[in-house]
Design brief:
Layout: H1 9-20, H2 25-32, H3 36-44, H4 51-60, H5 65-69, E1 87-91, H6 93-100, E2 104-112, E3 115-126, E4 129-134, E5 147-156, E6 161-173, H7 177-187, E7 199-203, E8 207-214
Antiparallel strand pairs: 1-8, 2-3, 2-5, 3-4, 4-7, 5-6, 6-7, 6-8
Length: 216
């Protein structure tokens, strides 16, 4: 069941969107016609926001009240119309790695006795490869020594553009304490799923390919 979003969620989304646009609190306050002290309060403390305030914040942040409320958070991306003149462009190895470099959420694909399986993970990119964390003895941990696929993508709903990168290679458990420390320091990767997911895994791609939808 989807949880009910409470006071404070709006403030976190306001702060995230403000930083995404590169705005200071002062600049956002000027755009919205609000006091900077209120923006600071909203971002730091739970509060109930009126519909009028949501409209003003949405306009100032180039977004919608619905987005600030999280109404589109659990909706799969890409439901909009295709852009005219769209074309599919292959990406080279360097561009693929550049897109993977910030880390984020990807999907691990592998084969099981019950057929193919794909699971989402929070990942980071380290010199050793694509790294993620899982629980000891989990279905992902049991893929150590096997070939897996890592798929990561990004979507621009406004421009109807997007990209997808696919990396294929053997998965391995990271058991060396020094390497584990370096990976943790390098990527800072964590699992949103929590629950003692302290087993690090690394996928060193044998091949990496990507495509991008462009409309320019």
């Amino acid at each position: 069941m989807m949880r009910v979003h409470g006071p404070g969620d709006v403030g976190r989304r306001v702060a995230w969107r403000r930083k995404e646009l590169g705005l200071s609190r002062t600049e956002l306050a000027d755009r919205a016609g609000m006091a900077e002290s209120y923006i600071t309060y909203l971002e730091q403390r739970p509060d109930t926001v009126t519909p009028q305030t949501l409209v003003r914040l949405g306009r100032a942040l180039d977004t919608t009240p619905e987005a600030l409320l999280g109404g589109d958070v659990l909706v799969p991306p890409g439901a909009g119309r295709a852009a005219p003149g769209a074309r599919l462009v292959p990406l080279d190895d360097d561009e693929c790695r550049r897109l993977l470099a910030p880390g984020g959420i990807g999907r691990i694909g592998f084969c099981t006795s019950n057929g193919p399986m794909v699971l989402p993970v929070n990942f980071g990119l380290a010199p050793e490869g694509i790294v993620f964390r899982t629980a000891p003895g989990s279905v992902l941990a049991r893929q150590a020594g096997r070939l897996v696929a890592v798929e990561v993508d990004g979507v621009d709903e406004v421009l109807s553009e997007g990209w997808s990168v696919l990396a294929v290679g053997p998965a391995r458990l990271v058991t060396d304490e020094a390497e584990m420390h370096l990976i943790a320091e390098w990527t800072g990767v964590q699992s949103w799923a929590g629950a003692h997911r302290d087993t690090y895994m690394c996928v060193a791609p044998d091949r990496i390919t990507g495509r991008m939808i462009r409309t320019d």
